[in-house]
Amino acid sequence: MTTPALSVDAVFRLARDLDCVGIEFRNDLERPLFDGKSPAAIKDLAAEHNVRILALAEVKAFNDAPETKTAKARALMQTAQACGAEGVALIPRMGDAPLDRAAQRDSLRHALAIYQPMLTDMNLIGFIEPLGFAASTLRHKDDAADVLADMGNPDCFKLVHDTFHHHLSGDTTFYPDLTGIVHISGISDPAPNVADMTDAHRILVDQDDRLGNIAQLQTLRAQGYAGPASFECFAPEIHAITDPSAALAGSITFITAQLTAKAA
């Protein structure tokens, strides 16, 4: 999502050059998944550049009538399996108004019961990403964690800790043991209040970040999380960068320096 203008080959080269551990691919860009390359070709490129394919996104509105989405979900999972991806992203439906949290848990429980056998059979992880917007049908990580606990914490499900959505939701609890991946993005624009923050505000993390990315990453690390953190920037000005290597390198350097200083 951070580099939607780059070809698949260029994204692999960028990940290698920046010493990233992996890449997330998306099926909701204005282009075919993998630029039309076969999953087998993507698997070969990942091996060639020594990077992981962390996830394929997304099973959209996965918690809304999931029994009608099994074919699409299975197809994405099969693609993930064929390209060597570690899992698929499960993104909840955005509603028109806030939904009772008990209803959110019920719909999540129903959906996960349907997806669990497919993920288990294909040895994949379903990355559950609560969205912090007020009208999200799965807003809080606490609710997802409670449902997973009721299910016995199946190995095939992990949470996505998204620093933007964590900030929007007002969540205060971190779940390092349940977290499979962290999404990072910053907001430096001083104008929007929390209720008015949107994906279009999400840029690379810098010294003016309002989301507390450094504090969130520091807390996750202190509590034992050692997995990947993936840039997820939706802002048009980030998408317009022709050569994002320098900008990404700068943000990585800033984040690393801040975490190192805080740990000292």
Automatic annotation (TrEMBL):
EC number: 5.3.99.11
Name by which UniProt lists this protein: 2-keto-myo-inositol isomerase
UniProt GO MF annotations: isomerase activity
Tagged with keyword Membrane: no
Root EC class: isomerase
Entries under Gene3D superfamilies matching the protein: Divalent-metal-dependent TIM barrel enzymes (3.20.20.150)
Keywords: Isomerase
Taxonomic classification: Bacteria, Pseudomonadati, Pseudomonadota, Alphaproteobacteria, Rhodobacterales
Protein's UniProt keywords contain Isomerase: yes
Domain named Xylose isomerase-like TIM barrel: residues: 12-249
Origin species: Yoonia ponticola
Pfam families in the record: AP_endonuc_2
